[in-house]
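The data are passed on as follows:
___
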Amino acid sequence: MHDGHPELVRAIADEITRSGPIPFARFMELALYHPQYGYYMRASDGPGVERIGWSGDYYTSADVHPFLARALARQVHQVDDLLGHPDPFTVVEMGPGKGLLARDFLAASQTASPSFFTRLRYVLMERSPAMRASQYAQLAPWAGEPGRIAWLDSLDELPAESVIGAFMSNELVDALPVHRITMEGGTVKELYVDWQHARFCERRGPLSTPALTHYLDRLATCGITLPDGYTTEINLAALTWMKQVARALGRGVVITIDYGHTAQDLYGPERRKGTLLCYHRQLTSEEPYRRVGEQDLTAHVDFSALATTGDEAGLQVTGFTNQMSFLIGLGVEQALDSLEPGSREFQAMVHLLRPEGMGRTFKVLIQHKGLEAPQLDGLRFKPFFGDILSQARGERPEAIGKS
């Protein structure tokens, strides 16, 4: 049996044996989200073993320092002012991980804005029993407050336009299942996963859904064509997710934080092998068929596709920036001034800003609905040329001003 979680490997192999090779997106979905054995769905493999964190396979900004949550709270408080202080103000966090971001957001809101906190309803979108258990523990201080915290399995459980407030996610979209394609002899082929000789292997085949052709056609309209030998990922699940968010939001904002690029950068020549990475014990590899169910699988986010899909579904782009600029706009420099240089907390906060690391790798896309061109503090500094929607539509560079 190939290396990985034995029951998960067997379940995937049995599906392939029954129905034939599966698209990589299906393999990734099973590896991460199989109801019983998926990487994110089951409990950790032993006492003291964690998936996410300094001792886990990878860590997030929420593990580094609470300031990201505090900045998000400050940004959301500003949105509350723009919305006229609705009651309730609902925050929906999607993919809340261990619950650290939620914990620190609630704590910051309770301290900084009691009037906002009295109206705050926090909803965690989480289908993993293992992750929910961690979230319950982190949010215990507020568990007894009626209506304060709720959990849902799916965005489909939210009625249309029922949320007045904010949707937030941090490192969610990169872990949604991606299709993998490759260019061969001028023709696009999809990568499928087969099971042969007790091992997973790849097969090339026709595209599994017309949605992939539509995605590539859109890239072509903004001048992006993929040469022979080019392999990359297409995240159709992210587009479905964005449409679901747009449907559920009545008035407010959507804040998406993740590592990724505009389409022009993501599908550039320097990424001709794609961006798929596996994370295990703080090490990366490009071997998705090893440690199946025992390592994280991710791919960089196409923010142009999110912006375009959201716009078509009723979400206007408020702005696009990187994490460093977002945090500067929300007061990180003043927070640093209050700390002792060289202290552990100072260094942790700086880690969120490092240009060669989280500061520029992580991007922040904010979209709005039911608001008139909001001016948000987190978007005061936008270190990119042009507008993300204009670029996604293939408009001429000379028609795009510096933002």
Remarks:
- The longest helix spans residues 67-83.
- The chain is about 35% helix and 25% strand.
